[in-house]
User: Which sequence fits this backbone?
């Protein structure tokens, strides 16, 4: 992402009406449906131009862009990754996430059941480092996964920035992640996808979504993107990638398209 693009994104966000975090908490999506889309920086700028009058932007203190740090845990043979790679349900992720701006950290267990519904449970922790040192989280992880925390180890971490939009009808949230960096704790490999943008639409059931028509207009198509699995694909060694090869090809095509523009 160029400095000019960052400036353009910042200007577009400043032109939008803000919504505060307490106001965000009042938006309860009881029958939530999640859909992910992947585009590039130019696609993000075009989308913000279309949404600026019909969406709020989340503002925390004076910031409309938030920073996140995440670390994922897995077993020696990567059972969590392998279940995703094979398309098996139910499947689980164990992660710790820090909301950098607010300095809040949580240990989380995400589980997608046989009906493809995702449930997330979390507890607040002092920091990601306390989990990595094995100082907290044992009972929580055992209760939620049936596995001992000491049988798992940190595999991949990431850093990214996030914009959160809410439609004026307050029936959906749109999280937009970019500036994505991966770090592999086992081999030291790193990967940057700073031109890739991951959009996740979270809406209340099949209620009308204003942004879907905008995404179609921009030819931004649905595309699954698990940050943990993509981080593993780009940085881990000697793992099967069969199920993700098409997705990796799509991402490579998006990156090349952004370079050409």
Assistant:
């Amino acid at each position: 992402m160029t400095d000019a693009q960052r400036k353009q994104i910042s200007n577009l966000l400043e032109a939008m009406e803000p919504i505060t975090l307490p106001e965000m908490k009042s938006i309860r999506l009881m029958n939530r449906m999640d859909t992910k889309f992947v585009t590039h920086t130019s696609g993000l700028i075009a989308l913000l131009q279309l949404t600026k009058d019909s969406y709020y932007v989340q503002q925390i203190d004076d910031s409309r862009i938030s920073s996140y740090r995440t670390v994922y845990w897995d077993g020696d043979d990567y059972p969590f990754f392998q279940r995703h790679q094979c398309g098996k349900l139910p499947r689980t992720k164990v992660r710790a996430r820090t909301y950098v701006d607010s300095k809040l950290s949580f240990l989380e267990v995400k589980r997608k059941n046989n009906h493809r519904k995702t449930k997330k449970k979390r507890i607040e922790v002092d920091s990601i480092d306390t989990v990595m040192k094995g100082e907290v989280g044992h009972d929580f992880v055992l209760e939620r996964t049936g596995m001992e925390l000491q049988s798992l180890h940190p595999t991949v971490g990431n850093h990214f920035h996030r914009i959160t939009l809410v439609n004026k009808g307050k029936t959906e949230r749109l999280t937009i992640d970019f500036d994505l960096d991966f770090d592999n704790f086992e081999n030291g490999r790193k990967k940057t996808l700073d031109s890739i943008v991951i959009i996740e639409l979270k809406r209340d059931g099949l209620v009308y979504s204003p942004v879907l028509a905008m995404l179609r207009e921009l030819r931004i198509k649905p595309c699954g993107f698990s940050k943990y699995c993509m981080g593993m694909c780009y940085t881990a060694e000697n793992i099967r990638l069969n199920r993700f090869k098409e997705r990796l090809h799509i991402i490579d095509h998006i990156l090349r398209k952004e370079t050409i523009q």
Remarks:
- The longest strand covers residues 153-167.
- The first helix runs from residue 3 to 14.
- The mean pLDDT is 91.
